[in-house]
Design a protein that fits this description.
3 domains, alpha/beta, Rossmann fold, 16 helices, six-stranded parallel β-sheet, single chain
């Protein structure tokens, strides 16, 4: 090992340590930006160190360097443009696309080693086993993430799409992956094995995500993120690169933990999510407890303003409708006005509010909402009975009392106990369904009033009406 190689190894080891510390900083919203910056900086250093190593070895020609530089510049430009231009409502789609890119890039590494090796028969299990796992996991991630992004964007229907034979594929393909891996290990000089694994994984990735409804997309995004990290770790084993193994393992482990937490928040197992079928377009007209048609109580901006202005305690429940209307700043302004009037205000954030983990936290942070005001479900639920007003802005399934009784698509899902507040105000454009595809029984509760408006325009009207009352 040359002095340059030794130095690069130490640099990559330091980068790996920075990845670990950066992930630790992401545990808290206060330090998450520093953690993200540290991890991104460490990755940039790792890329430069790898380039220095390639230069020292002389293993890349002039044309190769041109491809590397142009590829790096193009990828960096696309990433920077996407990160700066994407709307918060489209962030889940962007994350899914990033998962697809990460999984696809990881697949190219073992394919190069398996198909481009001058002596393929000499490849041992140290390369072929992680190589096969990388091809399968990375390709499933690539295909599944593209389908998930399409569902979130609306180009693919968000409802569960169960085509004939989908269940049979889900059962038969995993054993086929095992057989393909054994085939590759025993005959590494056969190019057909990795290509067959690639084709089967593409089919499985599509078939896995299509039957999953929109209500489960936050869990799916977390799971595919874990798959991306695992694929990258397998690529690290193929290349014998510790920094890549550490980075991939961190993403895989953290994504797996987050997936479990998200599934628990919906009181569903990860296996139940992957079976699919949740988030249908079903649901009929709202009914009251006696089985007859129920009615809603519409409110005007002045009606809501009176309740808010004379309340002692208000709990705000943000949802995807807030993000879709880009109304976080208007909500922040309204809350500041209420606080200046002596009203105690806090935010109740459900773990799966929005379309991806942490969606509401990031959204409210953009509006400079103090983090101590954001309360998680278990912390805030006991406070609803003491709240004079629960103000629901664009949230749907996570507030549906139907979750407390069996026989509905949301049965058993932990919800925010909004209906236990003294008064409930829901800002919503219409009586449309949430991802679960059923009516929200909260809307017909006698204590609930519906303020029908776009979240942004409705909050602007409320702010003006409250200001008129408080002076």
């Amino acid at each position: 090992m040359t002095p340059v190689e030794s130095a690069v190894r130490y640099v990559l080891l330091a980068a790996a340590a920075c990845f670990v510390f950066g992930l630790h900083l992401m545990n808290s919203p206060r330090s998450a930006r520093r953690g993200n910056a540290l991890s991104a900086g460490a990755m940039a250093v790792a890329v430069v160190a790898t380039a220095v190593l390639l230069l020292d070895r002389g293993s890349v020609t002039g044309t190769g360097w041109l491809v590397l530089v142009l590829g790096g510049a193009f990828g960096s430009g696309c990433g920077l443009y996407a990160a700066r231009s994407v709307e918060m409502t489209a962030m889940p789609q962007l994350v899914s696309l990033f998962n697809a890119v990460g999984g696809g890039a990881a697949v190219l590494i073992p394919l190069q080693d398996l198909l481009g090796s001058p002596h393929p028969a000499a490849l041992g299990a140290r390369v072929t086993v992680p190589g096969a796992l990388d091809v399968v996991i990375g390709t499933v991630t690539f295909a599944g993430s593209l389908v998930a992004a399409g569902k979130l964007q609306g180009t693919v229907p968000g409802r569960p799409l169960v085509f004939p034979g989908a269940r049979a594929l889900a059962v038969l393909l995993p054993p086929a992956f095992v057989a393909g891996t054994v085939w590759l290990v025993l005959t590494p000089d056969q190019t057909a094995a990795p290509l067959v694994l690639l084709a089967l994984a593409l089919v499985f990735g599509v078939a896995m995500v299509l039957p999953i409804g929109g209500a489960d997309m936050p869990v799916v995004i977390s799971l595919l993120n874990a798959f991306t990290g695992t694929a990258v770790a397998m690529a690290g084993f193929v290349l014998s690169e510790p920094a890549l193994i550490v980075a991939g393992a961190l993403v895989g482990a953290s994504g797996t933990i987050l997936t479990k937490l998200m599934a628990d928040a919906m009181n569903r197992s990860v296996a139940a999510v992957m079976v699919g079928g949740f988030g249908t377009d079903g649901g009929g007209a709202a009914t009251d407890a006696g089985g007859g048609a129920a009615s809603v109580r519409p409110l005007s901006a002045d009606d809501v303003a009176i309740q808010l202005a004379y309340a002692r305690k208000v709990i705000v429940v943000p949802g995807y409708g807030l993000a879709a209307a880009r109304a976080q700043h208007e909500l922040g302004d309204l809350v500041q006005l209420l606080e200046a009037h002596g009203v105690e205000v806090s935010y109740a954030v459900h773990p799966v509010a929005g379309r991806m983990p942490g969606h509401m936290n990031v959204l409210l942070a953009e509006a400079d909402v103090p983090y101590p005001q954001l309360k998680e479900m278990d912390e805030v639920n006991p406070e609803f009975p003491q709240a004079d007003v629960a103000l629901v802005v664009g949230a749907n399934d996570v507030t549906n009392p139907a979750a407390r009784r069996p026989g509905t698509p949301v049965s058993g899902m932990p919800i925010l106990d909004v209906d236990r507040a003294r008064s409930v105000v829901v800002i919503k454009r219409s009586m449309g369904h949430g991802y679960a595809g059923i009516d929200n029984e909260l809307y017909t509760d006698p204590r609930t009033g519906m303020f029908f408006a776009d979240a942004k325009q409705g909050l602007i009207e409320l702010r003006a009406a409250v200001r008129a009352f408080v002076g």
